Amino acid sequence: MSGHEFSQTVVITAANSWDGVRMADRQLAESLSRRAPVLYVDPPQSVVSRIRERRIGGLARKPWLQRIGPGLARLSPEALPGFARPVVAGANSRAIAAQIRWAMGRLGGNIHSTVEANVLMPVMGRCGERQRVYWAQDDFVGLAPLVGQDPQAFARADEALAGSADVIIAANPSVADALQSRGHVVRLIPFGCDDQHFGSAVAPATEVRLAGPMAVFMGHLGDRIDLDILESLAQCGVNLLLVGPFHPRTDSARFAAVLNRPNVQWVGEKPFEELPRYLAHADVGILPYTYSRFNLGSFPLKTLEYLAAALPVVATALPAISWLGTENIDIAEGPEDFCAAVQSRLTQGRDAAGDANRRSFAARHSWAARADEFAEALSLAPIARR
Q1: pTM for this entry
Q2: Does residue 385 form part of some domain?
């Protein structure tokens, strides 16, 4: 690996592994690597978790340091088990930082910025970087109960990172407002979308048996979803395609009743690469989220992905949705209003002008555009995109 290639590297300590669902961390890293070299650091795994994975037929041990593409590398660090314990978390932060320094030595480069998204085991200030960046992706206190962690631990980590960062980037308006209310200077850069991927012309998936017009929900089916709205859509006769896995915290009996209706089809979890083939069947994308603290402090990636696929959207009034401020998204409150809004969109149908308008809007919020905003926020030297 070329030292010149990894000069002034941006290190992203990700909240999500590179493997599996292609989350915001990975999509930003891929786009940002066209502006600056990037080292993507997976959430650490312990020896215990690796043994457990092998025992149940899971993944074999990943490469320690892997070249992904031009100016883009991935580090899969090791850590001690018991991540949530304060003493262990501190030891792991130091261990992960040491592994990052080792990786940069192998790459022959140096670090311009650490972008911290793994809040409980931060490495900023330990890697010899010029700049410390806190990427506040979600309301982490709201996230804590969903991942079985202590909300106070997340609150302390959030405040410590905000207090020590040179730059704070929030991914949604609620988190930005909360940090600003505590006296921090915050740059709002919401999540983006892969507009080229979701806007590409593809053959519709053959396993979908429902006839159009239909609405689609893409994502985890669990307690973040307002089941009253989902039930109402099924009962009022909307053809409903559900794409995504069931979350462990799911009211399985109520979901089963929805799935048993003839106008509803669930196709399970699908690879990121295949998702446009399922959206190709739909006429409207839906976001029936509850008003939990975590949802209010999130930015659902699927919002812009629907628009990139030229689908109008019906959503509950999350701050991130309202922030987008486009006529392509209808805000609906409660099951009755939501059902009426979806039926209205399905009755109106789509036309070429509306599809083009939605794709154009999504393109302005692409990951390439977000990478440009990150590059400006991080004061990266302007270079031609690779």
Answers
A1: 0.91
A2: no
